[in-house]
Amino acid sequence: MANPTPLTPQGYLLARTRWHPLEILFWLATLLPFLVFPNYLSLASQIAITALFALSLDIILGYAGVVSLGHAAFFGIGAYSAAIFSKHVWGEPFSGLLVAAALAGLFGYATSFIISRFRHLPLIMITLGLGLLAHEVANSAHWLTGGSDGFQGVSTEPIFGLFRFDLYGKTAYAYSLAALFIVFLCARRLINSPFGLALRGIRENWNRMPAIGADSRAHIRKAYTIAAVIAGICGALLTQTTNSASLESISFQRSADVLVMLVLGGAGRLYGGLIGAAIFMIARDQFSGIAPQYWYFWIGILLVTVVMLLPNGILGGLSKLLGRWSRK
Amino acid sequence: MLPPIFGVLFDGIAYGMLLFVLSVGLSVTLGLMNFVNLAHCAFAMLGGYVTVTLVNIFGWPFLATLPVAFVAAAVTSVVLERLLYRRLYRASDLDQVLLTIGLAFISVSVAAYIFGTIQQPIATPAALRGSFDFFGIGLGKYRLFLIGIALLVTLAMVIGLEYTRFGAQVRASVDNQRMARGLGIDVDWTFASTFALGSGLAGLGGALAIEIVGLDPNFSFTYLVYVLIVVSVGGLGSIAGSFAAAMLIGVSDIAGKYYVPELGAFLIYLVMVVVLMWKPAGLFGKR
Fold this sequence. Notes:
The structure holds two protein chains of two kinds. By secondary structure, chain A is an all-alpha fold. Chain A has 15 helices and no strands. Chain A has a domain at 39-250. In chain A, helix 4 (41-63) packs antiparallel against helix 11 and helix 9 packs antiparallel against helix 11 (216-242). The radius of gyration of chain A is 20 Å and the shape is globular. Chain B is mostly helical. The A-B interface holds A 61, 67, 69, 114, 117-118, 120-122, 124-126, 128-130, 132-133, 136-137, 139-140, 252, 256, 259-260, 263, 267, 291, 293-294, 296-297, 299-304, 306-308, 311 and B 30, 34, 36, 84, 87-88, 91, 93-95, 97-99, 101-110, 112-113, 117, 217, 221, 225, 228-229, 232, 236, 262-266, 269-270, 272-273, 276-277, 280-281.
């Protein structure tokens, strides 16, 4: 930060939009699974979807400071609307994705009026309550969602009528990765815009931002709706790439998992959710031999360690190390 | 003959009493230090497993295990408080949520490892089995016992908080921590002991809950939701609020399951969201 010329706001934001070589390397590395691990492409596709979900939580939690314990509600809405759309309307994937995003966004916008009124504990409770409500609705609306039996009859047509979703997950990964990259570009643009800066301001001081012309509640509403749209896209991606939708997609477990991933990677950093999701999912795949209840023992230990020793997640710890190293 | 609604009401009240014992400790500690403790039900589960072990393996009578459950949960909680919680009193909500969710995850795994994932059976004394017939309504003896214990706990807490020196210190620390420190009250010590008492009550609640709702490793999360609902609906730091909220949630849950079973748990979540939208600080909340 030894900048001789004073930094203008425009200059600051412009400097942040420049692509770092490491970022380009990261996105090139996401293409590696096609060549190196062709047997793990369905896992890679799941990782891409989960990473996008973590990114969507990052927008509201990491940047705007809205702690949500019910983010899976929008994931589930996206998953079920894509499933229902493919069964009753048609199976073309892109339109299904758009419908899911629009519906999740609609619910997100409606609930954002509730969310933006609260902070701290009531906020955590409200998001938890809304998430559990959504789960109960999906569970009891058996005629629509199939309830605990899972949704029957998802049929996704090939992309552009050419690329079929195959058993190895080649199409699935390409499709999810493309979605992840496009949404990531939008999110990157959003975060490095004055709007993104205002969100960070609200996170740091809720009361002072309105005084400089950024209405906290209106900003939170917008950010929450955007996050809901992205979460809906993730749900739809999961439905389309796995050809199924289940209650698991809307469960509290999913809300808690994505929170863990984001915090593990580093909240408030664009790549935090992506890195966290990749590490979490790969570890879970490697340890899948362990019964799930023991897997959560290690998640618990990890959480306690991250909170106690790495308050800004893995990326936060790394950048601190780098900062110390470059100063020497 | 009384119509069945009284039976439902009785069961609902008994269930509400159980929720009250489980949650009142969290309400007080949340109000006192603003610490979001999602591991509260892990202490309740600990109490439950202590009772199960003592009764089934060492052959203790059920009633004698209840104080042990209380003490075990209280001691464990104070150890964790000194080791981990204390460092996060000034941290953000998010860090507190993460730490305590982590502890709850660990508790689930440890319980599953030691006791397996099955429901734990428990033998209550013969005197608490069966039910009285009251104008055609079966009043379960165990539920009457539960109501009695909960009323005793309420009485003890009200007397303890309203009429003792310790209670005055706790109330002073809840109302204005800085001022309380200024007056020479050892707020840290007050909090540690309140925390131990609250977790101990949770442990007692966990032991009492086995007969009503069963005990398995997921207890930490299943009842966490109920406890949080009670606390946030009732208002932080308010015993009367927790009591009223526990009754409201207990009765509406049992009545909902009895009259409209297809709604499932929908009703209580709805009650919570509606109450919080109406009064974000809860029914009896101060802030």
